[in-house]
Write a structure and sequence with these properties.
The chain has two helices and 15 strands. The chain is an alpha+beta fold.
Length: 197
């Protein structure tokens, strides 16, 4: 049995995508067991950033922009699990990301299970800065600053919930969407009152 080779990297290392005028780097030290470059996409196996959880299969491509990845964090809640990738974008381009969540067994990842945040707090709607692609791939097109891409896994909330109504299958996602909407409306009302005053 052969021992697995671990390759370390630092913030000084850059993973270029020359044809697309893009590059990927990391804000912290880390390691991976394998990194391959296929079809203008970097594919990292067992990617581990210092201070973050491991990503078993991470794929990223960037066009007309440089990406610096800060962290990948997994949060295990009582009713859901979330995976959050934080990165910074320099340039007005496109970033295509895949966390390796798609099992390929006929299931798909709904855009309702994802949240994309630009800056520190601007939640961006799908179609207005990002889009969902097949096989759990997220295409970010409107970022020029820090970005958080978050996936929520609600399937464990009800066990095998494929026979439940839509609102029960996605109750946590609906609750989060309503909460975010209320906060945005509340902030808008306060801003409107200040402008009138």
């Amino acid at each position: 049995m052969q021992a697995q080779t671990i390759v370390t990297f630092s913030p000084a290392d850059k993973f270029d995508i020359p044809i697309l005028d893009g590059a990927v780097s990391f804000a912290v030290n880390g390691s991976y067991s394998k990194a391959t470059f296929e079809n203008n996409t970097w594919i990292f196996t067992d990617l581990q950033l210092n201070g973050s959880q491991m990503i078993r299969d991470f794929r990223i491509s960037t066009q007309n922009s440089n990406v610096t990845i800060f962290s990948f964090l997994i949060n295990n809640g009582t009713s859901f699990q979330s995976e959050r990738l934080r990165f910074k974008v320099e340039g007005h381009g496109e970033q295509i990301l895949n966390f390796g969540l798609f099992s390929g067994q006929g299931e798909s990842l709904s855009s309702a299970e994802w949240t994309v945040v630009f800056g520190n707090h601007t939640v961006v709607s799908e179609g207005d800065g990002w889009n969902m692609l097949p096989h759990g791939t997220v295409d970010v097109t409107g970022a020029t600053e820090n970005v958080s891409v978050v996936h929520y896994d609600f399937l464990n909330s009800f066990g095998n919930n494929s026979n439940l109504p839509f609102y029960q299958q996605h109750s946590v996602a609906i609750a989060i969407a309503i909460s975010v909407s209320v906060v945005i409306i509340f902030a808008f009302v306060i801003k409107a009152k200040r402008n009138l005053g």
